[in-house]
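Q: Hi! First time doing this. I have a protein sequence and I read that you can turn it into a structure. Is that right? Here it is:
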Amino acid sequence: MADPAPVAIEVRGLKRSFGEVVALDGLDLDVEPGTVFGLLGPNGAGKTTLVRILATLLAPSAGCARVLGHDVVEEAFAVRRRIGLAGQFAAVDVELTGRENVEMIARLYRLRAADARRRAHEVLERFALGDAADRRVSTYSGGMRRRLDLAAGLIGRPPVVLLDEPTTGLDPRSRQELWNSVAELRREGTTVLLTTQYLDEADRLAQRIAVVDHGRIAAAGQPGDLKAAIGGTVLSIRMADRADLTDAGAALADLCQGERPQLDAAGGQIRLGVADPAISADALRRLDERGLAIAALEVQQPSLDDVFMALTGRPAEQEPAGERLEEAA
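A: Yes, that's right. Below is the predicted 3D structure, encoded as structure tokens:
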């Protein structure tokens, strides 16, 4: 019998607390080599704490984590030699040029001066920074700084890259450029763990996704499988009067394939996963019988927004109360 395929990142029962705040609560995770794995969740869900533990910057309270078979606590040096790390804020020196930043990191990897210059040139060109390489980083845009940070993290050719919300705060063009860089990493066989609160980002880049909520994995799988789990179709109904939203939700509750319809009070909208688009006729009949007027109805394919809402009961951008400490620790 063949041995099971190795995993690039293995996490078992990982726990981490900051005082009374529990950031990770027995989290389990496997990331296959050569894939982009999306860890999806709002701020405070535990994503950054996990990345910092995997990067050997933070010790777990309990449980274990391994990167390419190396324990992050007992073999921290071996782990650091095998990972690249880029976070929400570019860790570059704005007083140096782009080239000087990358060459400095290369020298920290103990590359000889000539090799450091060669590798710096390669990664700067790869991330479309060649023309700006000799400009001070203080003149770079936010997207350029984020790409430079990623370039510096790849100078040692790590087989595993940890990206902690790398596109937070970027404009659409810069986000697209970074997405292209991540896709290229995957094509080259690099394993990427990508944390994000942007559902479109996870859907676009990741082969597998885990939804993390309150320090645990709420669900994991391929994007299409997660969407299918809440229903093959989503009815989106906007009420003519937002005051009718709760009554409408109660009227349609038993039509929902998930636990309950999603109610958006601000927009006066109901979304519910259903097994068959024809159920929309039944939904309209029920609302009409109760005198609940609608402004619009759409039949849509489910999105990762629907998945997250169904699993956690809140939008992905909504931060869990009392968990902000995880980001600042």
